[in-house]
Amino acid sequence: MEEMRELGSLALKLExxxxxxxxxxxxxxxxxxxxxxxxxxxxxxxxxxxxxxxxTTCLISAGLIGAVIYRMFLRFTPPIEETRKRWRKGLFxxxxxxxxxxxxxxxxxxxxxQASLYYSLAWYPSLGIGFLLTGIxxxxxxxxxxxxxxxxxxxxxLGSSMAFVPLSKLVTNYYGVVALxxxxxxxxxxxxxxxxxxxxxxxxxAVFET
Length: 210
Known about the structure:
Elements: H1 2-48, H2 52-74, H3 81-103, H4 112-137, H5 149-161, H6 164-168, H7 174-208
Helix pairs in contact: 1-2, 1-7, 3-4, 4-5, 4-7, 5-7
């Protein structure tokens, strides 16, 4: 009976490990895709100028491709329907700050350069708020998780967003707009890497060191 209990405990640990490793892959998949999309958009901006439609196309394409790829990995996680429903509702909260923040310039009297700077950076704090809202709603109630990665990423992104307040004052042309967009992308990728490593090693520790 003792061996059966140990086997059952090991099976639960391995299931939890698989669940968290699959979750950690989201940071790699979406980080690479969105990093590539933003780099591509910045490159196009340098060549032909800033167009919000190009930015939107790049970001939506990255999101759709990432969703398709990540869905393939979800097959390897336990089908807990209640948890998945909560995460689907959490996705609505994730997109809410993007909608609000990107509508806001319509009510502001911005020059073309200011609007370009706003749109090239607005996604970054929006991402942080989206992660934080989703983390509070869905992640906090997910008992399978070994770490609250969305909450960690949200706090890190919002905290680092403050750096763009003084940096934005240095922008005098579109090269500055592109430069700050690249800095934001680099910071995003570093935070994604950090959260991926945190989740990966905590998941490993939860299984192999307990």
